[in-house]
Write a structure and sequence with these properties.
Length: 264
């Protein structure tokens, strides 16, 4: 239920998600401050000296920072894989098209035209705005692969030569990269890791609020800046992890250049 809530919030937009994170962290800090203040006042009434919690708070914040950096690295690696696969797929499609242009006859023209259509389908898949647009594009990719392979079988039987073999290998690479790209887009940061980061942030920020309450100083400006930074860091992770939901998208220029190259 909670992962679904996070997914829903991030689908609503950056402002909603950032407001939710900032508000929840602010409430955690305020609750910690009130508990810390009450504990100190009660201790002073009983003649007890305030305890030093700064060491424990620093340890919690350090562990939280480590979890944040780990999550960012995880999300960044997923983004880089998607970016590299776009370039690799564009190169594979361009290679297949060049080799298909060496095939003579109607089959050569047919497979070249199918590869051009296939490149446009893969471009549409890469720049799809939401996950709802993906299933029809996958069906379109599968159908074009079947059509290309059907023509390829005719070519291979008619003219089994080195050019045909080279084209066959290029098509295999092109098809394999489409599966790799689809898997890369479906792979994201595990939601359990995001939940661990979120609840860890609530506990650490609450402990920091407790420390402020024990000291009797809210430090509003610095606390607000810290909460903004933590909220931004968690939003960055989700943005990198969700290839079609955030503002950080994989650049599809390699595929655009390949499609434009067909016209020349």
């Amino acid at each position: 239920m909670i992962p679904s809530l996070f997914r829903y919030l991030f689908e609503l937009g950056f402002i909603v998600a950032s407001s939710f994170l900032f508000l929840s962290l602010s409430l955690a800090m305020e609750a910690g401050y009130l508990v810390g203040r009450r504990t100190v006042v009660k201790g002073l009434a009983n003649g007890e000296a305030p305890s030093d919690v700064s060491t424990l708070t620093a340890g919690m914040l350090g562990l939280l920072a480590f979890t944040l950096s780990l999550s960012i690295g995880f999300a960044q690696s997923r983004y880089e894989v998607r970016r590299d696969l776009v370039l690799a797929e564009a190169n594979a499609i361009g290679t297949a098209w060049l080799r298909a242009s060496l095939i003579e006859g109607e089959e050569g023209s047919a497979i070249t035209a199918k590869i051009e259509e296939y490149a446009k389908a893969r471009l549409d898949f890469t720049i799809a705005a939401s996950e709802a647009d993906v299933p029809p594009l996958i069906m379109r990719t599968d159908a074009l692969q079947s059509d290309i392979w059907r023509v390829m079988k005719v070519i291979a039987r008619r003219a089994p030569n080195p050019v045909t073999t080279a084209l066959l290998n290029a098509l295999n690479d092109m098809f394999d990269l489409s599966v790799s790209q689809r898997f890369a887009y479906a792979s994201s940061v595990p939601e359990t890791l995001l939940l661990a980061l979120y609840f860890g942030a609530l506990l650490a920020i609450g402990a920091l609020g407790y420390q402020f309450g024990a000291a009797g100083n809210r430090r509003m400006i610095l606390s607000s800046l810290l909460l903004v930074m933590w909220s931004g860091g968690m939003l960055l992770i989700v943005d990198l992890s969700k290839p079609r939901a955030g503002d950080i998208r994989v650049d599809a220029k390699p595929l655009v250049w390949v499609v434009q190259g067909f016209g020349r």
